[in-house]
Amino acid sequence: MKVQLVKVHGSGNTFYLYEALYDDKLDYVNMAKQLCNPSINGGADGLLLVLPSDIADAKMRVINADGSEASMCGNGLRCVARHVCEKLEIDEAIIETMHACLTVRKEAPIFEQLPTYSVEISPISFELSSLPLFLEDKQELHHERIAAFSEDIPFTAVSVPNPHLIGIVEKKYIENTSHQQQLAAFLNSDNEYCPNGVNVSYVLPISNDEIFVRTYERGVGFTNACGTAMTASALISTMENIVSGNLITVYNPGGFVQCSVEQYNDKWKLSLIGNATIVGYYEIEYSHNKIEFIDCVITEEQVQYDKCNIYTENRLRSFTQ
C-alpha cells in the first residue's frame, strides 16, 4: 500500500503527518515505531494522524516514537493546524484532541517569514490525580522541594492535559543533563510516584519575559522541544513571579516559541505560538508491516528555520556564558 506522508516540525520537534481515514487498516503503532527510528531517514519524534471529526474541523491523534499515544502535543498541533487551515483555506480552525476541542489560528511570523501558528493549550489541572502523581497525602504540588526528586530544585506538577513535572533550576542543571536524565528515567520506569510516567522539564529563568526549557518527554526521551512542556513552564514561571507580562519567550534546544499566559478570575488561558515547518513530502510503501521509502520532495522551508536557529543559538550563548 502506498502512503503519502508529510514530514513537519515545530521547534525542532519532528513528526511525520498522515491524513488518515476511519476505515484505514494501517497499524499506526508499528508505523510510528519504524518512521521514528533514527536509522530510517533520520527518524522523528512521533506520528501525527489527521482524522475526520464530527465536532470540529479535524481530529488529531499523536503516536509517540515508542508506540504510546499522547493525549496532546502542542508542537504537533501547530503542524496539524497549518495542514488543516491550508487545506480548508481558512485562517482559524477547531481541532479535536483526546480531551478537548482546541482553537488554532494562523499568526504573523515570529521570525522573518517563518510560517507561524498559535494553538490553545487546555485543559489545565493542578490536581495530582490528573497526572497521576502520588506524593503521600498531597493533592497538589506547587514550587516545592521533594527530597526523593531533589534537595534543592522546587517542582510543580500540572497536566495540560499531558502530565508535567516542572523544576525551576540553576544554570548548572542546564549545563549538565545528568540529574534530569536520572530523575526522568526513574519517573518513566516502574516507580511508586508516576505509574504512567511523566514529562520532566528543567526551566532556567533568563529575563523578566524569557526562560529556557529542556524537556525529557515521556515516550520519547530528551527532545528538541515539547509544546505542552514549554507552555506549562511559562505558566509556572508566571505563577511564581519569575517572569512578568502576558507573552513569554521560551527558548529550547530546537529553537524558540512564544507562550501567551492570561488569567481571568481563577482561570488560566494558555496559547502556544511558534513555527509549523514543512520539511518534505514523502511516499512510502507500507506492506506486511514494513516501510520502504519510495520518493521524497524536500522543501526550502528548513533554510528559513536554520536562520532562526542561528538567532536562537546567539541568544542562548549570551546567557549561558
TrEMBL record:
<feature type="binding site">
    <location>
        <begin position="74"/>
        <end position="75"/>
    </location>
    <ligand>
        <name>substrate</name>
    </ligand>
</feature>
<keyword id="KW-0028">Amino-acid biosynthesis</keyword>
<feature type="binding site">
    <location>
        <position position="64"/>
    </location>
    <ligand>
        <name>substrate</name>
    </ligand>
</feature>
<comment type="similarity">
    <text>Belongs to the diaminopimelate epimerase family.</text>
</comment>
<feature type="binding site">
    <location>
        <begin position="217"/>
        <end position="218"/>
    </location>
    <ligand>
        <name>substrate</name>
    </ligand>
</feature>
<feature type="binding site">
    <location>
        <position position="13"/>
    </location>
    <ligand>
        <name>substrate</name>
    </ligand>
</feature>
<comment type="pathway">
    <text>Amino-acid biosynthesis; L-lysine biosynthesis via DAP pathway; DL-2,6-diaminopimelate from LL-2,6-diaminopimelate: step 1/1.</text>
</comment>
<dbReference type="InterPro" id="IPR001653">
    <property type="entry name" value="DAP_epimerase_DapF"/>
</dbReference>
<feature type="active site" description="Proton donor">
    <location>
        <position position="73"/>
    </location>
</feature>
<feature type="site" description="Could be important to modulate the pK values of the two catalytic cysteine residues">
    <location>
        <position position="217"/>
    </location>
</feature>
<keyword id="KW-0963">Cytoplasm</keyword>
<feature type="active site">
    <location>
        <position position="73"/>
    </location>
</feature>
<dbReference type="Pfam" id="PF01678">
    <property type="entry name" value="DAP_epimerase"/>
</dbReference>
<comment type="function">
    <text>Catalyzes the stereoinversion of LL-2,6-diaminopimelate (L,L-DAP) to meso-diaminopimelate (meso-DAP), a precursor of L-lysine and an essential component of the bacterial peptidoglycan.</text>
</comment>
<feature type="site" description="Could be important to modulate the pK values of the two catalytic cysteine residues">
    <location>
        <position position="164"/>
    </location>
</feature>
<feature type="active site" description="Proton acceptor">
    <location>
        <position position="226"/>
    </location>
</feature>
<feature type="binding site">
    <location>
        <position position="199"/>
    </location>
    <ligand>
        <name>substrate</name>
    </ligand>
</feature>
<keyword id="KW-0413">Isomerase</keyword>
<feature type="binding site">
    <location>
        <begin position="227"/>
        <end position="228"/>
    </location>
    <ligand>
        <name>substrate</name>
    </ligand>
</feature>
<comment type="subunit">
    <text>Homodimer.</text>
</comment>
<keyword id="KW-0457">Lysine biosynthesis</keyword>
<feature type="binding site">
    <location>
        <position position="162"/>
    </location>
    <ligand>
        <name>substrate</name>
    </ligand>
</feature>
<dbReference type="GO" id="GO:0008837">
    <property type="term" value="F:diaminopimelate epimerase activity"/>
</dbReference>
<dbReference type="InterPro" id="IPR018510">
    <property type="entry name" value="DAP_epimerase_AS"/>
</dbReference>
<protein>
    <recommendedName>
        <fullName>Diaminopimelate epimerase</fullName>
        <ecNumber>5.1.1.7</ecNumber>
    </recommendedName>
</protein>
